[in-house]
Specification:
two-stranded antiparallel sheet; about 70 residues; alpha+beta
């Protein structure tokens, strides 16, 4: 993440469809490192990532006050 100057990584499924299934952010990593033991760093990403994702198609238009999450 540092080498690519990014703050988050979208996690995709193992299928050919490459559907997004979660996300892990710098904040998640800081929380993990500060809260858990070093052995927790060997836990699969799927147990640490935030999910489910709320995704939009690129042609959707919206105003922030119209979204109910």
């Amino acid at each position: 993440m540092i080498d690519n100057n990014i703050g988050s990584v979208v996690v995709i499924d193992n299928n050919d469809s490459k559907n997004p299934v979660g996300i892990i952010t710098e904040r998640d990593i800081v929380r993990i490192v500060s809260t858990f033991s070093l052995s927790d760093l060997e836990v699969p990403i799927r147990k640490l990532m935030s999910y489910p994702l709320i995704t939009l198609t690129k042609c959707i238009c919206f105003r922030c006050n119209e979204i109910n999450v």
